[in-house]
Amino acid sequence: MDWNGRRITAIVENALLEHRATSDATSYACIDANQRAAGTIIAKQNCILAGVGCVPRILDVYAAFDGAVTSHYEVTSHPEVFDGVRLHNRQTIAVVRHNARVILSCERVILNFLQRLSGIATLTRKFVDAVSGTKARILDTRKTVPGLRMLDKYAVRCGGGQNHRLDLSDGVLIKNNHIALAGGIVPVLERAHRNRRGSQPIEVEVQTLAELEEALAHSAEAVLLDNMSVEAVKQAVARCARAERHTPVECSGGINLENVRAYAETGVDFISVGALTHSAIAVDMSLRVTPV
After folding, report:
1. Where in the chain is the domain with CATH 3.20.20.70?
2. What is the pLDDT of residues 19-31, one digit of tens each?
3. N or C end of the chain: smaller count of CB under 10 Å?
4. H/E element holding 87?
5. 129-278, which class in CATH?
6. Residue tagged active-site, from 83, 107, 226, 250
7. Pick the catalytic residue: 36, 44, 97, 108?
8. Is 108 a catalytic residue?
């Protein structure tokens, strides 16, 4: 992740502006301007870490907002603590040594990013572990918080998952609404093959085995099995294996930690799970500050 990139910088800037971090009335009233402190970020539960690189970026952007911030800072962590690593309850993530007012003003922004991203990574790892030993790979979706997609999808990678499309330009994924508007699977696939840009693969969503037959007969290059039972997915995988060309198979819809293993054992290539980003529970973390 390029934490210094323009898009990440814009996300951090918006987060600090939302908090009006440079106008922290409480820290201004209570803390000496020259006080230095050490802020220790602690995981308060077992989790997968994601987002530690945001800590120095937040401090840098804060300094760009507040020209009065001139004191240097350090962000240190143990060599074995990095994004994607499994943390234990009470484990230290990083220590920030900086002006005390700045630490306090950035505290919530730092924790909000770390807690959300680590929550996504932790849930993703649970799905990845659940399908271990099969060929299925766990994918995310575009069901992300508006404005935070790059970070949400980065957290999925930290958890061992893979990213599907980053945005609508990344590939042709024909879903039920496209099919309805175009008049069916056959005409929509004909249009897609005629109008696609370059060599983008064409994936089409199907909900029945009959729709799958139509898709394969009209040169679908990948299929998404939507809301199909485990038994139906197994039959679909077997049918795709007999197709003239290799057709990657993805399934989605109603898949959770209780049934993901069963879907993985059907032989699908990919399992997409919207819950990774739309329903992940933030990890519990804290930031403890002491004077230095």
Report:
1. 129-278
2. 999 999 999 999 9
3. C
4. strand 86-87
5. alpha beta
6. 226
7. 108
8. yes
Q: Identify the active-site residue in 20, 175, 196, 288.
A: 175
pLDDT for 244: 83
Burial of 123 (0-12, 13-18, 19+ CB in 10 A): buried
Distance between start and end Cα atoms, the chain: 32
Predicted model pTM:
0.96
Residue 172 pairs in a beta bridge with 202
Confidence of residue 245 (pLDDT cuts 50, 70, 90): confident
- The token duo for 239 is 């049918």
Those residues whose C-beta lies under 8 Å from the C-beta of residue 148, and which sit 6 or more positions away, are 11, 116
- Is residue 170 annotated as part of the catalytic site, yes or no? no
Q: Which residue out of 152, 203, 205, 250 is catalytically annotated?
A: 205
Token couple for 186: 């056959």
Beta partners for 38? 97, 290
205 is catalytic: yes
Band of residue 70 on the pLDDT scale cut at 50, 70, 90:
low
Check: CATH 3.90.1170.20 for 6-120+281-291? yes
Residues 6+ apart with CB under 8 A from 109: 12, 15, 16, 19, 21, 58
d(CA 167, CA 164): 9
Residue intervals of the chain classified under CATH 3.90.1170.20 are 6-120+281-291
Q: Could you report the per-residue pLDDT of 75-134, keeping only the tens digit for each?
A: 999 999 999 999 999 999 999 999 999 999 999 999 999 999 999 999 999 999 999 999
Annotated active-site residue in 143, 191, 239, 261? 143
DSSP 164-185: --SSTTS-EEE-HHHHHHHTSH
